[in-house]
Amino acid sequence: MRHTRILDLLNSTKTLQEVNVKGWVRTFRNNQFIALNDGSTIHNIQCVVDFENTADETLKRITTGAAVSVTGALVESQGAGQKYEVQVVKLEILGDSDAEKFPIQPKNKPSLDFLRENAHLRVRTNMFGAIMRVRSVLSYAVHSYFQEKGFVYVNTPIITGSDAEGAGEMFKVTALPFDNTPRTEDGNVNYKEDFFGKETNLTVSGQLEGETFAMALGQIYTFGPTFRAENSNTSRHLAEFWMIEPEVAFNDLTDNMDLAEDFIQYVIKYTIDKCPDDLKFLESRLLDEEKSKPQAERSEMALLEKLNFVLENNFKRVSYTEAIDILRDCPPNKKKKFNYIINEWGADLQSEHERYLVEKHFKCPVILFDYPANIKAFYMRLNEDGKTVRAMDILFPGIGEIVGGSQREERFDVLVEKMKALGIDEEELWWYLDTRRFGSAVHSGFGLGFERLVLFVTGMTNIRDVIPFPRTPMNAEF
Amino acid sequence: MRHTRILDLLNSTKTLQEVNVKGWVRTFRNNQFIALNDGSTIHNIQCVVDFENTADETLKRITTGAAVSVTGALVESQGAGQKYEVQVVKLEILGDSDAEKFPIQPKNKPSLDFLRENAHLRVRTNMFGAIMRVRSVLSYAVHSYFQEKGFVYVNTPIITGSDAEGAGEMFKVTALPFDNTPRTEDGNVNYKEDFFGKETNLTVSGQLEGETFAMALGQIYTFGPTFRAENSNTSRHLAEFWMIEPEVAFNDLTDNMDLAEDFIQYVIKYTIDKCPDDLKFLESRLLDEEKSKPQAERSEMALLEKLNFVLENNFKRVSYTEAIDILRDCPPNKKKKFNYIINEWGADLQSEHERYLVEKHFKCPVILFDYPANIKAFYMRLNEDGKTVRAMDILFPGIGEIVGGSQREERFDVLVEKMKALGIDEEELWWYLDTRRFGSAVHSGFGLGFERLVLFVTGMTNIRDVIPFPRTPMNAEF
To answer: Which intervals of the chain form a coiled coil (chains A, B) (predicted)?
Structure first.
């Protein structure tokens, strides 16, 4: 008979005479009670083995991590905490798991570091099962939001011949050998002999290509991997991460803020609705973790409270200029507690400043906008004041920057002048400039780092724990 | 006032006193009729300009490609072919488009080659607007299918330290310089000094990592970019393409075939339902294209007929051995019309053979299974006969192979022996082997090349026309 998923058995409306379940043993107690999990839910189903009529040889093989197939009746459970259990009639060991060797032993309480080194097995724990299910549902919420609104999903290129954006250090992509590398007459690497006939890199953003599609299809979004070859060994940075980049023709910066806020609230609400059990588990995990911290460092809100807070409160919209005024006069600045003291308008904000604004001053998500032109990218629209651009960053408690976006400079002449001033090659970006040459219009977009969103929703604190196989400096195992 | 999408105006249930539309001019006839498109639909809205009361200076700027904002009444159209039109009260040119310079002039009938070189603008044509909307809806159908069934979406790594799979030539990813490359004492490149401390490549498949997640979460799928550094300049190959790879614990090869067939039928049906107008346009485009072909080379079915045929007919399941018997005795083999004559069991099938089976013999999608072990990958499950493996390929008319999959070898000893025979490093794949060390079980999966699916559904014939910015040998523009 075909096996039934544990999720479906636990949601059954009635007992059943015969069912088959397949999964992995989480624990085996008293030579009798198997807690079996198949990944369909955080909950295990209890399978009660008739140990008196089961061969010792078989009982010994029911170890943590073993794959088993169990056939029997789905009956109401005598024990607390579960509605149903399976009374085992037939048990088959599908794959053994040597208890001495299986690295993921619940009783050992493996550290997050150890689990990262075993990223292929950590997903067999409750914690990572929950994280990865939540991540998956969040992904789908992203697609659902945009598709329901008629946005077109665009797969912008991963390998890019354009390195002009300056969003960060790039990885080189090449098929050339390091030995006997083809050279031009003057001794440079001859990229004409490389696979693409030119120098290519891994994309840092699909925005520029996305803009060209928005200027044809109206509303588009990307959702794909992006890369940074930056030696940032922090709990918030990955060398390979997934980014969501909507771009909308005819949207100005206010429309852009409205879109970002509505989008974030939608995907969080969607996930709360779809993943109540996983989020409940992650909430209690976070509470446990925080018990080891000093009172002052603990979150003021539990996980679900924090998520609901984001749904129920508008994001505070604050201009960069207002933010500088607040920061200049705030106690940590006056007492020189910040590493970077804010003295003047024009300073680039560091994460300590962002955290102060979000966590101490406003105590809610904040949208900062209208930044000084010279600390932002070339494609952002210059305001009438001639010194600020229509940029926006969304800052989240505990996460920092989760969104960066802007209204784009739609005026050909202004854009070209800016590129010249920054030494950006117009020839290289001929196709980008075409969007301003032919039928240009106001348009806006933003980028949201997906893993930062997953961090926020799961209450995890290290970004390496919310992506299946993290890539960071000196680490590309698997 | 806020502008309304053209799709919503054309679907309006009533006339409206005042509306605002923004979009790009497709054509401007008789100094009076603007065909305006905003990418929300293939249909243009006709905007009727009161030319007697509009400045000549403005009328001259209403050119193909220009972005305009139009305000006026939505009224019933006098002309044929449209329900509503806009009687323009106010017209604003948002962005000019110099008619002498704008490359996409409908009257010039630009070639597909020319449009590929202008991938950033081709999406402003009806054809590419339709293709990209259909592609987007197909993507969403993929996610919907798996999410509704409780599959977990897994983002397997793009940069991979594992090069053992042998699915194809890989691109190197590096942050090392070609000049003064760090070397070890014996003169080799010292990858310990590279960003990840080891040699890394762009992934050719997320399958192996996907398997580790399936063996924890039960049912997973990937949908992400994959890469081949192969010098294949054909209409069916890309260096960068998107792949869908579901993997399911406890599924055998029959379950795998059932899943693939059900999945393909679902996403095609979903797209037929959601994109009737775009598909109708693409169907007539294909008919036009085929008019220039000799009768014998034309499709027997129109596009929608072909899509419905796939929905209404089961895929024919044929073992490799049966296929060889058919091919050996078929007229083109006997008359030596094939480039590769089929003489013996064990021959690898070429696309000419696959096309014969699908297009001439069975005239429907075909699933070939149980291939000779030595022409398939190391991880496929060996049959009891000791010479075939539980592989399957799905072949589509006009496309060839669209799916490749298998039941995986779940037996540790058999897998290790196979790897040894092929010289695949066990150390390198320690984590993959762990899935067989700890709680192994029968499991299966497949990979579907997304662009080949888009080709099939849109009726396009060159794969470069169904991805926004194609990457092929000597081509990574944009």
So the answer is: none
Q: Report the share of chain B in percent with pLDDT over 90.
A: 91
pLDDT at B164: 59
For B23-44, what is each residue's pLDDT tens digit?
A: 999 999 999 999 999 999 999 9
**A162 in the same domain as A229:** yes
Same domain, B279 and B375: yes
Sheet holding B172-174, edge to edge: A159-160, A200-202, A172-174, B172-174, B200-202, B159-160
List the end-to-end C-alpha distance of chain B, in Å, as a whole number: 36
**B42-85: per-residue pLDDT in tens?**
999 999 999 999 999 999 999 999 999 999 999 999 877 889 99
Q: Residue A120: which of B129, B431, B469 has the nearest Cβ?
A: B431
In this structure, is residue A403 part of a structural domain? yes
Neighbouring residues of B9: CB distance < 8 A, sequence distance ≥ 6: B16, B19, B21, B45, B74, B84, B86
From the CA of A400, how many Å to the nearest CA of chain B?
23
B201 to chain A, minimum CA–CA distance in Å?
9
Indicate whether A275 and A413 sit together in one domain.
yes
- A36 within 8 A of A4, measured Cβ to Cβ: no
- pLDDT beneath 50, residues of chain A: none
Tell me, yes or no, whether A154 and A212 share the same domain. Answer: yes
Do A456 and A402 form a contact (C-beta atoms < 8 A)? yes
Alpha-carbon span B36 to B64, nearest angstrom:
10
Residues 25-64 of B with CB under 8 A from A: 25, 38-40
Distance CA(B349)–CA(A336), nearest Å, equals 73
Pairing of strands A240-249, A33-37: unpaired
Which of A41, A151, A196 is most worth mutating to test chain B (most B CB atoms within 10 A of its CB)? A196
Question: What is the dihedral sign for C-alpha B166, B169, B171, B174?
Answer: positive
Which residue among A161, A181, A469 sits closest to B157, beta carbon to beta carbon? Answer: A469
Q: Which of A70, A155, A233 to mutate to test the interface with B (most CBs of B within 10 A)?
A: A155
Sequence-distant (6+) residues with CB within 8 A of A383 are A370, A389, A390
CA distance A91 to chain B (A): 14
**Confidence band, pLDDT 50/70/90 cuts, at residue B165:** low
In a domain, B43, yes or no: yes
Same domain? B157 vs B38: no
Tokens of B459: 């009726």
A431 touches chain B (CB under 8 A): yes
Indicate which CATH number applies to the domain containing A19: 2.40.50.140
The dihedrals phi and psi of A248, each to the nearest 5 degrees, come to -130, 120
Interface test with A, best of B212, B221, B248 (most A CBs within 10 A): B212
> Å from A117 to nearest chain B CA?
10
Output the average pLDDT for chain B. 95
**Domain span at A395:** 126-168+204-315+364-465
Flag whether B57 is in a domain: yes
**Cβ contacts of A130 on chain B, cutoff 8 Å:** none
Interface of B with A in 97-156 (CB under 8 A): 97-98, 101-102, 118-121, 123-124, 129, 132-133, 135-137, 139-140, 143, 147, 150-156
Q: Going by C-beta distance under 8 Å and a sequence separation of 6 or more, which residues neighbour residue A350?
A: A338, A339, A340
Contact between chains at B209 and A468 (C-beta distance less than 8 A):
yes
Chain A residues with CB under 8 Å of B473 CB are 195-197
Tally the domains of chain B: 2
Does residue B355 belong to the interface with chain A, where contact is any CB pair within 8 Å? Answer: no
Instruction: Give the mean model confidence (pLDDT) for residues B266-273.
Output: 98
Stated as kind and residue range, the H or E segment containing A281 is helix A276-291
Region B346-359: what's the mean pLDDT? 94
Q: Are B36 and B68 within 8 A, CB to CB?
A: yes
